[in-house]
Specification:
The protein is mainly beta. About 15% of the residues lie in helices and about 40% in strands. The protein has helices at about 1-15, 75, 125-140; strands at about 35-40, 45, 55-60, 65-70, 80, 85-95, 100-105, 110-115, 125, 140, 150-155, 165, 170-180, 180-190, 195-200, 210. The strands form five sheets. Strands 1, 5, 6, 7, 8 and 9 form a six-stranded antiparallel beta sheet that branches. Strand 14 (about 180-190) and strand 15 form a beta hairpin.
Length: about 220
Amino acid sequence: MKKYLLLLLALILINVPALADVVPYYVSNVSSEVRGFYQASKDLTIYEQPNEKSKVLLKCNWDYKHFNCPNTSMSNLFSVFVQAKELAFMTVTDDIGDWVEVIYDRNSNKKGWIKKDETDPYRFLNLRTFYNLYGRKYGIYLLKDAPQEVSILRTSTSVDSQTSGQIDNPIKIQLQAVKGNWLLIKVIDADKSTKTGYLQWRNTNGEIYAFPDIK
């Protein structure tokens, strides 16, 4: 009987999808069209147009243990998912009144519309607000394939300005201010040395090189 119960438990565990945190690792993981991020509610309905009478493209629900969404995965739907905090964000590419356009299929870059939650106006955060909120709280990190020159710190918000140091083996990168496509940061390296300067977190084409280190 005991062996039967153990076997049954093993089969259940095998068939329960494991939820893993989702964060960007590479430049291509964050769309260059991004205007901000929308904190996903536990029950999501995505429409073809910013109108509740338009075609429903996707309906799903989730929490920190379960993900029920047809024909997609958590990593394909969410740009950020932190299981311990039940925190999920979707990439926003447009914002019209009570609606946000989001990428709901990251592999195919498919987009649809979510009606904003009237009870929580802070679910949609533009890029500046998102970085100021989460970057200041958790710090930031460089994406793995960011250009090498991005690791060079500058004295002002220009690639032609003087260098003030370089990010080598950072333990922590603290965000102090967001100024356009530049972040004023303080870097604590593995040798305990500190450096301060401006980091180009985004280029003029919208490619993002650094991201809040949400944990």
